[in-house]
Request: fold
Amino acid sequence: MTNGFEPKILYILCSWCGTGGAETASAHGLRYPENVRTYRVNCTGSLPAVHVLRALVEGADGVAVSGCHPGDCHYESGNYHARRRLANLKTILGTLGLGDDRLWFRFVAHGEGRRFVDTAAEFSDHITQMGPNPLTARRDT
Amino acid sequence: MNGAMVAAPGGVQQAITDLLRRGLDEKVLNAVLVPARVPAGDSFAWLLVRDSSVLEETQPLPPVMSVQGARAISRYARGGVSGKVAAVLRPCEVRATVELAKLRQVELDGLLLVSMDCPGALPLKTYLDDPQQGDADFEKLLSGDETVAREVCKTCHLFSRPVSDLHFATLGADNGQASIVAGSEQGRLLLDTLRIAEKSSLDAWERAVAERQEQRKQARTQAQAAFRQDIAGPDKLLETLSQCLNCHVCRSVCPICYCRQCYFESQALLMPPDNTLARARRKGGMRLPTDTLLFHLGRMAHMSLSCVSCGACEDACPSSIPVARMFSLVGDATQKQFDYTAGRSVTEPLPTITYKEDELSDLVAPYFETYSGRETAS
Ligand code: SF4
Ligand code: SF4
Ligand code: SF4
Reply:
């Protein structure tokens, strides 16, 4: 699936489950699209909202975030707080018509290598379909 | 429900001042925080009053909100006040104070919050341009002509009965009268101490408030839908912000933006020149100072859950950008998703410090089965 546009994707992973998913994928030789750049944070609960926004304003066509499943967070509740924070961000983007669909949140466990590469590929295809993020080309941001 | 009927021949201002005077004279109150006309006569400022004779200079319900009351309080009562101090606030100022208390920027113990049915406020700039005309406009506003009010006030549905200790009810009352409504044990105790009996019915007031609330809710929904049409989408939003000076005045006057070191004032966004050059290369050019849009979006991410839609930011913006309308549009949406209303209750936890294990299932991108897209090709 291409329309001649290869999106820039930022895939933010917590250093426990999300990154673990990527490690499991690599151990199994599973591959994900090269336009997806992974970015590791300690816990999705510690991911500053501004980092997500900055990516979406300054260069990324889409941002995906993966942390531990409910009940699995290394810090007990970081993933629950992250879910609230991302819901908040999506609401802000949606209310202002900036494309809340350019932001995805999905839980990925350490052992879920397949789910990790699937998410990367599915999100990349989804953003390809949406087309370029108009904000990133604006000089007046 | 009953309240204490008091005479207000000179309007509610007079009734509030009378109560404050008795409180100070009978030593039930240590001090009162109340707006007063500045000596030059052309604006208003907060005054912490200890001597009841100074109350003559004060105006508990000024035509404008030159400084948001919660901001005045947080500069004074962060570590708690000594004795009992009454603060006279508009309802949106009470709500901001409640948010600041939850954010541990105000200690409510010892503070007695006094509010009134709010007629709205005039745009600060219009008032400062011509204070005399402004005073005349405020008379109009007090008699119910809303056309002169600030945009946020025209659609304010939380204009009455915040979680204050004492509230002055004037809606639905006969001219020259007001009722004092005790909203807490503390408020009731003060009335008791001053031997003010709560004997009059509040039915007419409650009906009048409910009716106006309904009108305002509808007006708010309509105005927000129209406003969203005007500003939503990358093109329109950037057009709305195109005159923004990146001066951050909207942030510095916001009662909720209490951070002593704001992220957007910090070095965090000061990139090495090569980084900015790379951004300019990517887009063909780069507006400086950078990150105007990011400042607004980031501020929304940080505080829109506590935005009380008070309009202070919009009043202060030198470029007349509809900042408060933007923030309250977004704030209403972000608060709604957590069934939260900023300043509605002291005990309701801030949405950022709590969570439910089972919630927001719509937000999480569903994953049903193995995705058979592009990755299988490699
Ligand atoms: S927003 Fe306006 S009408 Fe509402 S409480 Fe504040 S000043 Fe009064
Ligand atoms: S963002 Fe504006 S409207 Fe909202 S609380 Fe701050 S100053 Fe008031
Ligand atoms: S919106 Fe107005 S007050 Fe805020 S930074 Fe821009 S110009 Fe300054």
